[in-house]
C-alpha cells in the first residue's frame, strides 16, 4: 500500500552568511492514511523544524535544502507557492503549539474560521456559518454562536487550543500535523485536548503527525514513533515495540528519563548525562556517542545509518534488545 | 463603553480648564497692558478707563471666570499690540494653518502608508532599502533646512513654485481658502511637503517595524499554515494589528503638524497662526500667545480624545476593559 505522506531525505539548513548549517538532515518517513506517527525528541532536535518544512512554513534563515515530499500523488517540494497555499490548511492541517499566540488578537473566531474555509472550499455564507457552528461544537466548546463572535482574549487557554484545532481541521485536511499541541497547556487540560484529538482523528479518518517531547503523549496517541536526535531520525518503530524493546541507546535513555515508580513505589527519573550537541556543533560519527554508555571507536568515527531490525529501523552500531525485539515480533 | 467615553471627555475638559488657567495667569501676571496700549503721556482718566474696559480692577477669580466664559463665545479679548479682537486675528489665519496641515497630512498618508506596507512586507527588497535610506533624511533633517532646500531647488533654480505666501484665495462662507485656485495650490505644495516630510518618514518607519514584527508572529504563521493568501494575510491579518499604534502616532503627529507649523510657516511666510504666534512673541503680545497656547492644547486634547474613542472599534481587546 502506498503511504499518504512519504518523506525522503529531508534536509533543512540555517542559511547564515551564505554558509548553510544543517539543522535537519536525511529525515525520511512514511505516514499511512489514518495512521498516527509520533515524532519525539528533546527541544532542539529538529522535530518542529522538520514538521514545518513539510508544507514550507519555514521562515528565513531556515530553508529546506533537499528532500522529496509526496502527498498522495503530488510532490509538495516541487509545488509553486500558489499550489502550496492550497495544500496548507486544505490538505495538510497544522495545529500550533501555543494557543495564546496562535490566534489573531483583533479578529473574531468566526472571522478567522470563515476565512480559512473560504480559502479552500466553495461555500455559501450560510453554509460557512453552519459548518463553523458545527466545528465549534465538535471541539467541545459550549455556546457556539457566542464563541464565533468572541475575540480570542475572551477565551481561556484550553478553549483557545480547541479553537486552534477547529481552525486547523475546518477545511478537512487529509493529514494533520500537530506540533506540541498540549505543551503550553495546564496538565488538567492536556488530557482533555489529547482525548479530543484522538476522537477527531477517528471521526475524520485523517492521518496525523504528532510532534512532542512527551513519551506519555506518544503512548496514548501514536501507532508508530520516530525518535529524532540532533536533526536526524535515530529510531523508528511501532509504539509498543519502541516502549518495550528500544533499539537505540538514546531511545532507552529517553524512556528511562520518564518518571516511573520503582518497586518501592518511589518515582524514579534517570537523566541522560550531558547535552544534545547544538546546531553546527555536531561531533563526528554517531551524534549521540559523547553521551552513550556503549560508545566505542567505531561510534566516534562512522555515523551509523538507519538499518532495519525486525520491523523497526535504528541507527546504531551496537543496538539494544536484539533478542527481545525478536521475541516481540514472534 | 459609554461611561468610559464620558469619563474621558470629562478628563479632557479638565485638562483644557487647567491649560486655560495657566494661559490666563500668563496674561494676568506678565507685562503691563496699560503701558503697552496707552501712549506714554496718557492721562490718569485714560488709564482708569482702559483698566475698566479690560476688567483689570476686578478680583482674579472673577476675571478668570469671565475669561473662561468668553472662550466658547469666541470672546478672547483684545491684542495688546494691535488692539484688535484676538478672535478675529485667529479666525483670519486659522484656515491657512488648517489647510496647510490637512494637505501635509494627506501627502504623508498617501506616500507613507503604501511605502510603509511595502517596506514591511518586503524588507529585503532593493526598493525597500532605497526607501529606508531616503527616509533617514526625513527623520534627521530639521524642518527649516528642508524648507530652505526646497525653496532653493524648486523656487529659485527651477522656478516651479512660489517661495512665499498663499497665492490667490477665495472666501467661501467665512472660510478663506487657497485650495480652489491654481496659484493657491502652487503655493501650498512646498510648505506642505516640508511639513509632511517628518511625519511621512516617521509613519513609514513605524508601519514597517510593526509589520515586520507582526509578520514573524505565531498567529500570522498559523494563518499562513491554514492556506490564507498573502494579500489577505498582510492587508487584513497583519495590518489590522499594526493599525492601533499607527493611528495613535498619526494622531499625535497631526497635533504636531497643526501646533508646530510655526517653523514651516515662517520659512514660507505662510499667513497662518504659526506666523501670528511668532509676530506676537516678538511684540510680547501676551494675550495672543496665551490664546495660542490654549488653542494648541485644545487641538491636542480633542485629537487624542477622538483617537481614544476610536480604539475599541479597531481592537476588540479594548472593548470591555472599561465596561
Write the layout of secondary structure elements.
The complex is a heterodimer of chains A (about 325) and B (about 325).
Chain A: E1 5-16, E2 19-31, E3 36-40, H1 47-54, E4 62-71, E5 74-75, H2 81-87, E6 92-95, H3 99-102, H4 109-118, H5 125-138, H6 144-149, H7 157-169, E7 175-179, H8 187-204, E8 207-212, H9 215-221, E9 224-229, E10 232-238, H10 239-244, H11 249-256, E11 260-261, E12 267-268, H12 297-301, E13 307-309, E14 312-314, H13 322-329
Parallel strand pairs in A: 3-8, 3-9, 6-7, 7-8
Antiparallel strand pairs in A: 1-2, 1-4, 4-5, 9-10, 10-14, 11-12, 13-14
Helix pairs in contact in A: 7-8
Chain B: H1 2-29, H2 33-37, H3 44-54, H4 60-73, H5 86-121, H6 126-140, H7 143-157, E1 170-172, E2 175-177, H8 182-215, H9 218-225, H10 230-259, H11 262-267, H12 273-282, H13 286-314
Antiparallel strand pairs in B: 1-2
Relative helix content of chain A: 25-40%
Adjacency order of strands in the biggest sheet of chain B: 1-2
- Compute the average pLDDT of chain B: 82
User: H/E element string of chain B?
Assistant: HHHHHHHEEHHHHHH
Brief rundown of the structure:
Chain A is α/β, with parallel strands linked by helices.
Describe this structure in words.
The complex is a heterodimer of chains A (330) and B (323). Chain A has helices at 47-54, 81-87, 99-102, 109-118, 125-138, 144-149, 157-169, 187-204, 215-221, 239-244, 249-256, 297-301, 322-329, and strands at residues 5-16, 19-31, 36-40, 62-71, 74-75, 92-95, 175-179, 207-212, 224-229, 232-238, 260-261, 267-268, 307-309, 312-314. Chain A is of the alpha/beta class and 330 residues long. In chain A, a hairpin with a 2-residue loop joins β13 and β14 (312-314). The longest helix of chain A is centred in the middle third of the chain and has 18 residues, at 187-204. Chain B has 13 helices and 2 strands. Chain B starts with a helix and ends in a 9-residue tail after the last helix.
Amino acid at each position: 500500500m502506498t503511504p499518504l505522506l512519504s518523506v525522503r531525505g529531508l534536509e533543512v539548513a540555517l542559511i547564515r552568511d551564505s554558509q548553510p548549517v544543517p539543522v535537519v538532515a536525511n529525515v525520511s518517513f512514511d505516514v499511512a492514511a489514518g495512521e498516527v506517527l509520533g515524532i519525539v525528541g528533546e527541544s532542539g532536535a529538529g522535530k518542529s523544524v522538520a514538521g514545518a518544512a513539510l508544507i514550507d512554513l519555514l521562515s528565513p534563515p531556515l530553508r529546506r535544502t533537499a528532500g522529496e515530499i509526496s502527498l498522495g500523488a503530488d510532490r509538495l517540494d516541487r509545488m509553486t507557492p500558489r499550489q502550496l497555499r492550497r495544500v496548507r490548511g486544505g490538505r495538510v492541517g497544522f495545529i500550533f503549539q501555543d494557543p495564546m499566540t496562535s490566534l489573531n488578537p483583533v479578529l473574531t473566531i468566526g472571522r478567522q474560521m470563515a476565512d480559512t474555509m473560504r480559502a479552500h472550499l466553495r461555500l455559501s455564507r450560510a453554509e460557512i456559518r453552519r459548518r463553523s457552528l458545527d466545528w465549534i461544537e465538535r471541539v467541545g466548546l459550549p455556546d457556539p454562536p457566542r464563541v464565533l463572535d468572541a475575540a480570542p482574549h475572551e477565551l481561556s487557554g484550553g478553549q483557545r487550543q480547541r479553537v486552534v484545532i477547529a481552525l486547523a481541521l475546518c477545511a478537512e485536511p487529509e493529514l494533520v500535523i500537530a506540533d506540541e499541541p498540549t505543551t503550553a497547556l495546564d496538565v488538567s487540560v492536556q488530557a482533555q485536548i489529547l482525548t479530543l484529538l484522538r476522537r477527531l482523528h477517528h471521526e475524520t479518518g485523517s492521518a496525523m503527525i504528532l510532534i512532542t517531547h512527551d513519551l506519555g503523549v506518544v503512548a496514548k496517541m501514536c501507532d508508530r514513533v520516530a525518535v529524532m536526535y540532533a536533526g536526524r531520525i535515530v529510531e523508528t518503530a511501532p509504539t509498543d515495540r519502541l516502549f518495550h524493546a528500544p533499539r537505540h541507546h538514546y531511545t532507552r535513555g529517553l524512556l528511562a528519563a520518564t518518571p516511573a515508580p520503582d518497586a518501592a513505589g518511589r518515582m524514579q527519573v534517570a537523566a541522560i548525562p550531558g547535552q544534545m550537541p547544538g546546531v553546527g556543533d555536531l561531533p563526528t560519527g554517531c551524534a549521540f556517542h559523547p553521551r552513550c554508555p556503549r560508545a566505542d571507536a567505531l561510534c566516534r568515527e562512522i555515523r551509523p545509518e538507519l538499518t532495519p531490525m525486525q520491523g523497526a529501523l535504528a541507527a546504531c552500531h551496537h543496538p539494544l534488545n536484539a533478542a527481545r525485539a525478536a521475541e516481540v515480533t514472534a | 463603553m459609554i461611561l468610559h467615553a464620558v469619563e474621558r471627555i470629562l478628563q479632557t475638559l479638565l485638562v483644557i480648564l487647567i491649560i486655560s488657567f495657566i494661559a490666563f495667569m500668563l496674561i494676568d501676571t506678565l507685562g503691563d497692558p496699560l503701558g503697552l496700549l496707552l501712549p506714554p503721556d496718557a492721562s490718569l482718566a485714560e488709564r482708569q478707563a482702559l483698566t475698566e474696559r479690560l476688567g483689570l480692577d476686578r478680583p482674579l477669580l472673577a476675571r478668570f471666570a469671565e475669561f473662561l466664559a468668553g472662550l466658547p463665545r469666541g470672546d478672547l479679548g483684545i491684542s495688546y499690540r494691535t488692539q484688535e479682537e484676538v478672535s478675529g486675528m485667529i479666525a483670519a489665519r486659522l484656515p491657512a494653518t488648517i489647510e496647510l496641515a490637512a494637505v501635509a497630512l494627506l501627502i504623508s498618508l498617501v506616500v507613507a502608508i503604501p511605502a510603509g506596507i511595502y517596506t514591511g512586507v518586503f524588507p529585503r527588497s532593493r526598493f525597500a532599502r532605497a526607501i529606508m535610506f531616503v527616509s533617514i533624511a526625513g527623520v534627521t533633517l530639521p524642518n527649516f533646512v528642508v524648507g530652505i532646500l526646497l525653496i532653493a531647488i524648486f523656487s529659485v533654480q527651477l522656478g516651479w513654485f512660489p517661495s512665499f505666501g498663499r497665492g490667490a484665495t477665495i472666501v467661501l462662507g467665512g472660510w478663506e481658502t487657497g485650495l480652489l485656485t491654481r496659484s493657491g495650490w502652487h503655493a501650498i505644495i512646498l510648505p506642505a511637503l516640508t511639513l509632511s516630510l517628518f511625519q511621512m518618514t516617521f509613519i513609514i518607519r513605524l508601519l514597517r517595524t510593526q509589520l515586520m514584527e507582526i509578520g514573524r508572529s505565531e498567529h500570522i504563521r498559523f494563518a499562513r499554515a491554514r492556506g490564507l493568501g498573502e494579500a489577505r494575510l498582510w492587508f487584513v491579518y497583519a495590518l489590522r494589528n499594526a493599525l492601533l499604534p499607527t493611528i495613535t502616532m498619526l494622531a499625535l503627529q497631526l497635533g504636531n503638524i497643526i501646533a508646530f507649523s510655526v517653523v514651516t510657516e515662517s520659512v514660507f511666510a505662510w499667513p497662518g497662526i504659526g506666523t501670528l504666534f511668532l509676530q506676537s512673541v516678538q511684540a510680547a503680545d501676551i494675550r495672543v500667545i496665551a490664546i495660542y497656547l490654549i488653542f494648541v492644547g485644545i487641538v491636542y486634547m480633542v485629537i487624542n480624545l477622538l483617537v481614544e474613542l476610536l480604539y475599541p472599534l479597531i481592537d476588540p481587546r479594548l472593548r470591555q476593559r472599561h465596561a
